Amino acid sequence: MKVVILGAGKRGTLLARHLIQERRNVIIIESDPKRAMETQNKLDCMVKNGSGTDPLFLKEAEADKADFFVALTDSDEVNLVACGIVENLAPQVTSIAAIRNLTYTGKDGLPATVLGINHIVNSEAETAKSIHKIIKRGIFSDVVTFENSDLGLYNFVVTDDSPFANRRVSECRSSIAPEFVIAAIKRGEEGIVPSGETQILSDDTLALVVADSEKRSLFRLLGQRKVKSKRIVIVGGSKIARFLLRLFEPSDHKSIVLVEQDGATCEEFAALFPNLLVIKSDISDELIFKEEHFETKDLLISLTDNDELNIVTSSYAKRLGVTNTMAIIKNNNYIRLAENLGIDSIISISEATVDSLLKFMRGKHVSSVHSLFEGRFEIIELNVTDGMKITNTPISKINMRGRGVIAGITTKSGHNIIPTGDYTIREGDTLLISAGREELDFIQKVTF
């Protein structure tokens, strides 16, 4: 697979890193000479310095010979024009454009195709969807949700007194009452595809797949609890905040407070969402927390365009007594810092965007893609159709050679199953498959 990426920003470099791990042929186009040189020094791929709106340069960069052309610059206009040129040069190339401006996306997003572009991704909209799903699940400790399955994936760190500590995976599954599958294990900098004989150690991070009906029991065992967030504070009148509020029912807005320091933005949100309480204030002024009694709230979400402010605000709110806090970040280097400051959930805009991009690259049978453990693993949501290699096959007969795990199944009728080797995969099933990123090509060959 050849992928040409336009733009060496955070999204472009993160996507490139993932694809390079998969041993894909990646070419990056970057217009800024300094950034192009820095990217070339960091990544094991070709980086070409030039304009993405120059047809001759696009041909020189082999955009017309790519399987995918992905436009991820900070300019919507450049992304749209570049994809339009590539479509004109080579209609067979699948083009994907990242679009941020609401003028282009409109209230309900863009139609299926524009200027011949095959797929449109809006970073803010994808991030808002991720946040809304987490709120609805009510679990804020690093949760992954799926499009066509009620199964959830939750990451937990194994403590010394955990029922998982110093036991084999098979022992845990047979002795711990709630049904679950360990989809992957992170041990230090190493990612492990677990088998029944894998020993779980203290400080391991487990990626557990569990059904909605079982998660309450499992979380109680792990000392976690589900919280229904009725009283919510949103900090920052950003585009993400706008998308997020649209995902709630209008009646839900009555229990949501928006804090924004810009007067014009406050007026805009008040007009768009009449049931919303909008407060004009600087969130860095600690008096706002006391005057509005934010310590009584169930959830505070910091959605400003400033990573540092989001982290500080969420951490401070947690210390004051807010039940759960969330923060969005653009710079993934802040993830570990934020985790150590007591913030319940950190959402990376870059990761949410890249996961959406990868979904399109995995093919029409994949409805969602999620990166795990800083991109070392990926879990895909695969829709089984007639004619696939695994259709009508017992799981015990699917030889993944220890490279991947079928971590969960939702049947055509909507029944969630924590799989065993005896289960036979049927047309209409939705599978959750976890694998190391470098093994994804093999997993696709085995399953598709």
Shape: globular
With helices defined by DSSP (H or I, 4 residues minimum), what is the helix count?
A: 15
Uncertain stretches of 5 or more adjacent residues: none
**Secondary-structure arrangement, i.e. CATH architecture of the largest domain:** 3-Layer(aba) Sandwich
Q: Briefly, what CATH class of the largest domain?
A: Alpha Beta
DSSP strand (E) fraction? 25-35%
Examine the coordinates and then state which fold CATH places here, giving the name of the CATH topology of the largest domain.
Answer: Rossmann fold
As a percent range, the share of helical residues equals 25-40%
Instruction: Going across the biggest sheet, name each strand in turn.
Output: 3-2-1-4-5-6
Supply the number of structural domains. 4
Q: What would CATH call the homologous superfamily of the largest domain?
A: NAD(P)-binding Rossmann-like Domain
